[in-house]
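Box 3.1 A note on notation
Throughout this textbook, protein chains are presented in two layers. The first layer is the amino acid sequence; the second is a token string describing backbone geometry. Keep the layers aligned when reading.
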Amino acid sequence: MLGLMMDYPLTIPSILEHGARIFPGKEIISYLPDKTRHQYTFLDLYKRSKKLMHALRYKFGVKKGDMVGTFAWNHYQHLELYFAIPGAGAVCHTINIRLSSSQTEFIINNAEDRYVFVDATLVSLLEPIASLLPTVEAYIILNAAKDFSTSLSNCIHYEDLISDCPDDSAWVEVSEHDASAMCFTSGTTGLPKGVLYSHRSVCLHSIMASLPNYVCISSSNKMLLIVPQFHVMAWGFPFAAVLCGAALVLPSSLLQPEALIKMIIDEKVDKAAGVPTIWQGIYACLKKNGHSSLPLKELLVGGASMPASLIENYQKDFGIKALHAWGMTETSPVASVSRLQPEHDALSEYEKINRRALQGQQLPFVELRIVMEDGVVAAWDGKSVGEIQVRGAWVIGDYFKTNNRESFSEDGWFKTGDVGVIDKEGYLQITDRAKDLIKSGGEWISSVALEVTIMAHAKVKEAAVIAIPDEIWTERPLAVVVLNEEKDLLSPEEIKNFLATSFAKYQIPDKFIFRQEIPKTSVGKFDKKRMRQLYTEGKL
């Protein structure tokens, strides 16, 4: 027997409809790349998103399912794209501005983006590859100065595009299961893979992540989004903020610690989200400049683990709580959050800090499990180590344009590639990573991709890449290189220049070690465990 309830679709336009009706005067403050400050309201966001949606449909002829790319900083126009593109029935494809040209080219072509919205300060990154992007019909330029010029063809200025459009056109009718947004992940070997979100997955993620036991977003908050809007939709927080009535502060390219601290103080920000490297820089700046207090009450950390010592220092020196969260592009991304429960009040401060440094408890409608090497699902005992697998209402079921099921278990769980444990209270702890991936500053780096490229150099015989600890970035890649001939001369700078055509700057190793041989296992594979051990012992 079926229930007798209305079939009310969960869609992204419904998030904005609610936000504009219930919280019309809530502020969205943007610090733009030219350092000017822009402020408007949720109602303004609604009207301008409607204008943009109209332009997409009737000026560009965008149809349901079309891909529309964004190549932009965090600001109010990018937020309008978040709602207008899916509101037109299309897919909002946020493109990582920090990737190499070859990766950006692949991603845009794989997505088959029809239009790309690009910040004027980022145009130079697309100009060299524009001729290689056959599906892109036009570029819409954001925040361009009066004297702006570019070699990109078919350019339209954003404000010119929407200026004569009505702000009351109806949203395109979509199913909650229709595609709404897409992000690419490079967290595995090989080419980046697309993760295609539905309207339903975005809505459910926004609701559940906002709950008090997790990120806890409400109309009493003013939230600074340091996490980029191209990084898993800014962790989904723009949607959650509009749904819950939280005011937003968006910093665009002004990501230096001094600039962010000034925003926090001037705008009275009480909640902010970013990767650990951002918080390390802000803490050092606060201490250097003698700050004693901030309006900030809680900082959200994701992308990589934040050291317990830094969590403690923020709490001790400024009364700011660091909230650890964990997820992936494939989990929309928030899958667990490490917020303390009432029963933890009796713990010592040391124990509380260590618990907050864990990756946390799973959100409602998300399930985590640990699968050991023998295939047995581990008990939640804090000791049994295995691969972390996840399933849930906003977890990937398939990658875009591929039938490869290597990342999924036979019973349909997503295999994250992370290794860890879950304790009896359900707190996840990541203890290692599978497949020798390197996570630097919250971004994945593929050791295999680096190795293959280095070995393509004419003077290189073998190359192996391992992760080594780094105080700022958590991990950095170290390359161990064997040359073809002893007489060959090859400098680290030459290898860096060789890699620069295929990799973003942050992906290129800082250190190179030249050896006569690389340790190998009994079957002839690079013995990376041994290499890490030798590095730790200072013998590599």
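The longest helix spans residues 42-58. The chain has a mean pLDDT of 93.
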